[in-house]
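Z., the sequence and structure:
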Amino acid sequence: MRALDAGIIVCDDCHKLEYLREGEVQHCARCGSKLHARRPNSIVRTWALLITAAILYIPANLLPIMTVSSLGRGMPSTIMGGVLELIHAEMLPVALVVFVASILVPTFKLVGIAMLLYSVQRHQPMSARQRILMYRFIEWIGRWSMLDIFVIAILVSLINFGNLATITAGPGAAAFASVVILTMLAAVTFDPRLIWDNTFDEQNDLEVEAGSEEEAVQP
């Protein structure tokens, strides 16, 4: 049984429990925010953010993320190009961190959120526990996606010696930062309570089917 079945809803801002009054626009008695049984248009908004992030993920990897100039010479490098340069410079731990934070984490977030949305919409055979663990993991790793942007911002502010050495951010940095922000917003927009609603509906369908089969068997 869900709290919603007992007529109880929770405020998304301060998490105060309130009794649902049908046909009324309710506001939280504590913080005054508008109350909803579920976040409005959660799936549609999450899909929109996710698709936009997926589109921007292409230029984020193809365009140069930064340009390192030394003595007036420099070559722009993409995320993967920077990883390969670190490997050639025998800086494997740093290359691994950059690869995980900049390639694996955004990819996992895009695929993971898409799987959650698809499983909720299409009733795929994933348990509610598997879905909620995936959702919590996506939320947890989201904060590490900005590692590349933080490094570039620090380097740009610290290394500026005129013609001797300069570091400038490239258009890929803006695209990558947009991907990170959009995936973070998608994780926030997605309502995890839909996972349990989906499981509850599946259980009800199974009970209805079982009841129909029993009635058909009885003489």
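The CA atoms of residues 149 and 173 lie 7 Å apart. The two ends are 33 Å apart (CA to CA).

Let me know what you think.
H.
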